[in-house]
Description:
By secondary structure, the protein is mainly β. It has one helix at 2-16, and strands spanning 21-37, 43-58, 65-80, 85-105, 108-120, 128-139, 143-151, 180-192, 196-207, 215-226, 230-241, 247-259, 262-271, 298-309, 312-323, 330-345, 348-359, 366-376. The chain has an 18-stranded antiparallel beta barrel. It is globular.
Amino acid sequence: xxxxxxxxxxxxxxxxxxxxxxxxxxxxxxxxxxxxxxxxxxxxxxxxxxxxxxxxxxxxxxxxxxxxxxxxxxxxxxxxxxxxxxxxxxxxxxxxxxxxxxxxxxxxxxxxxxxxxxxxxxxxxxxxxxxxxxxxxxxxxxxxxxxxxxxxxxxxxxxxxxxxxxxxxxxxxxxxxxxxxxxxxxxxxxxxxxxxxxxxxxxxxxxxxxxxxxxxxxxxxxxxxxxxxxxxxxxxxxxxxxxxxxxxxxxxxxxxxxxxxxxxxxxxxxxxxxxxxxxxxxxxxxxxxxxxxxxxxxxxxxxxxxxxxxxxxxxxxxxxxxxxxxxxxxxxxxxxxxxxxxxxxxxxxxxxxxxxxxxxxxxxxxxxxxxxxxxxx
Length: 377
């Protein structure tokens, strides 16, 4: 059956051009998450298994033009043991279908991509998801400029997390996301004081119907190295919905590299709520602040450490959540997250995520642990 499916994808690839080189494969994955409330009186199970098949093909002898595709089937099982409530959702999707190319033109590099692929804004907080669209960039030694235009209305909301997705527990296999036209343009100067980068990105998300609202954002970033052992990353995003007031997201991180395999990060982020003249910061793709109940209206100091060497990746992050939904700021709790990933073999990967949100309001306190396994073939 697998060979039959791959053969069909191969034939589709050949429609575009004679295949100079074709690679294919797949992956099986498992995610099993257990979570509980503050006193473990309510326990939840979120479990998912999936199968993914991919194909890559060079469409030119020099490899400048390429085709990539990936299809998947998975299910999501959600159980609330306290209320004996269970939902089971089947999901089928094509999460990658891309024609891409790159060419050297004068002193720069031109890259083009067309189709369905992962795309993110500068920050990765406003829009970071699979989308259908066209991307173009021109990259030189000192500068980079790029544009993106796309459409979200044909995406599968069962597999793509947008903030305005409307879920129906009876939806199965494929259900459409809200229809927006994202348009983004950015320019980056990469040689400020030799080792620093600054950039500006403008973005608009244009609704196609009257059920959704226009959102626009402007982002400034700056990052670079301080000596040989430290770096920083700063970003400020100002947004608006229907051009009715402004919303703000600002973050600053400092990184110290103690060894080639150990990095320590400290930083803070402010995500506006209804603070004075500011509006709550709304995003296009869903985001979370750990397992706290806040997606905006908060100040979040954090510290974290990452170890990556050989077959092991491990990270720990501690956040303090200072809630500020309106004009009053107060400590709400702290969020702890631990992540471990072990590459047992070249085709087997095991992982464990665990954490807790300890809130001064016990209703918000929760604990979780997620076991992950990936088998490539």
